[in-house]
Design a protein that fits this description.
Subunit structure: Homodimer.
Largest sheet: 4 strands, mixed
Oligomer: single chain
Order of helices and strands: HHHHHHEHEEEEEEEEEEHEEEEH
Strand order of the largest sheet: 10-11-15-14
Main location: cytoplasm
Keywords: Chaperone, Cytoplasm, DNA replication, Metal-binding, Repeat, Stress response, Zinc, Zinc-finger
Strand content: 15-25%
Structural class: alpha+beta
Shape: elongated
CATH class of one domain: Mainly Beta
CATH superfamily of one domain: Urease metallochaperone UreE, N-terminal domain
Radius of gyration: 33 Å
Protein name: Chaperone protein DnaJ
Number of strands: 15
Distance between the termini: 81 Å
Family: Belongs to the DnaJ family.
């Protein structure tokens, strides 16, 4: 991966929480810990965690590779020692805060103490920062592009997980050359950079690296390009894939499916697929986290006398015991009957009982209810006893 001009403003060691002298193993360990803690799949809907995940991924892309880490360290060292001062044209800066990197790596107008492309410095730094070095010097992408799509799921599909077919349009591996870009299927190692993708050159006191112009930074050279894809290894087409949506996704969550994005050029890894999920409300269930919630209509007698009621779950129905004397609105917990978790367990089913009052009673029921009401009064029961509004 070639250096880019944004490095001057980034502190990748701080992003990973390690010192600049950290070993490769320490950097890898720090990255894995932070990536696991801030992964979008573990923090649905948390945009701050998603941004932290992107930062640590970017930091590891640079520091996790010995070559790019060395180039990054060299750039930061030059900035820290006075900021690339002493160049022709009288440019110099005092602190990193005052340093405007665009003064150096600009378009070469020659104003403000800068320098032109013809001076040679535009070529040096243009090669490093992916500009000014000619069209053939931009490094090729090291992976395919990420793809975003949107789906709408029923409540129960989202809670239990589902498999859905998707149609995606974009770069896919060329079927003629199997993604290699070569008719023979055997790209050759670039003789200019010996397969590294970069060439070094000495400009005065500076040793600089830039993407190899012959292979565009890929490290490979194709002398027999595939006629179907013109040597890119990819073609634009519509493809059908089947993706597994994990159990427990919530409305608005973005699910990342690694390697399901667009194919990378010349056999490099594919990008990722990000699926934004909308969940339709359910007529019976709601949820809080991994707990499933349902409100069940009951008769007064079922609460007063107790008994067993039948309650729906995501899969079937279960029997729930209602203790005698249960008040209206009480919530009963049925463990393990909620939304499945990644661990293999499940949340709980929360059953709220709600008394339904009959609108019409036949004469026999009316007589029985009046008899009960009198017996209730004779027993001394007062539903408003202790109520603040009682007289």
């Amino acid at each position: 991966m070639a250096m880019n001009r944004e490095w001057a403003d980034k502190d990748y060691y701080a992003d990973l929480g390690v010192s600049s002298s950290a070993s490769a193993d320490e950097i890898k360990k720090a990255y894995r810990k932070l990536a696991r803690a801030n992964h979008p799949d573990s923090n649905p809907g948390d945009t701050k965690a998603e941004e932290r995940f992107k930062k640590v991924a970017e930091a590891y892309d640079v520091l996790g590779d010995a070559k790019t880490r060395k180039e990054y360290d060299q750039l930061k060292s030059m900035i820290g020692k006075g900021g690339l001062g002493g160049f022709p044209g009288g440019f110099r800066h005092t602190t990193a805060e005052d340093f405007d990197i665009s003064d150096i790596f600009g378009s070469g107008t020659g104003s403000g103490g800068g320098f032109s492309e013809d001076s040679g410095f535009g070529d040096i730094f243009g090669g490093i920062f992916n500009r000014g070095g000619g069209a053939g010097r931009a490094a090729r992408p090291t992976r395919g592009a990420d793809v975003e799509t949107h789906i709408t799921l029923d409540f129960r599909e989202a809670a239990k997980g589902t498999t859905i077919p998707l149609e995606l349009s974009g770069n896919a591996p060329c079927t003629t050359c199997h993604g290699s870009g070569s008719r023979s299927g055997q790209p050759k190692k670039c003789t200019e950079c010996q397969g590294s993708g970069f060439v070094s050159e000495q400009k005065g006191a500076f040793g600089m690296s830039r993407p190899c112009a012959k292979c565009s930074g890929s490290g490979q050279f194709i002398d027999d390009p595939c006629g179907t894809c013109a040597g890119s290894g990819t073609v634009h087409r519509t493809r059908s894939i089947t993706v597994r949506i994990p159990a427990g996704v919530i409305d608005g969550q973005k699910v990342r499916l690694a390697g399901q994005g667009e194919a990378g050029p010349n056999g490099t890894p594919a990008g990722d697929l990000f699926v934004s999920v909308t969940v339709r409300p359910d007529k019976v269930f709601t949820r809080t986290g991994d707990d499933l919630e349902v409100t069940v209509p009951v008769a007064f007698s079922e609460l007063a006398l107790g008994g067993t009621i039948t309650v729906p779950t995501l899969d079937n129905h279960v029997k729930v015991k209602v203790p005698a004397g249960t008040p209206n609105g009480r919530t009963l917990r049925v463990r393990g009957r909620g939304v499945p978790k990644k661990s293999g367990n499940a949340g709980d089913l929360l059953v709220t009982v709600e008394v339904q009052v009959p609108k019409d009673l036949d004469p026999a029921a009316t007589t029985a209810l009046r008899t009960y009401a009198q017996a209730e009064k004779d027993s001394g029961f007062d539903p408003r006893a202790g109520w603040a509004g009682a007289r």
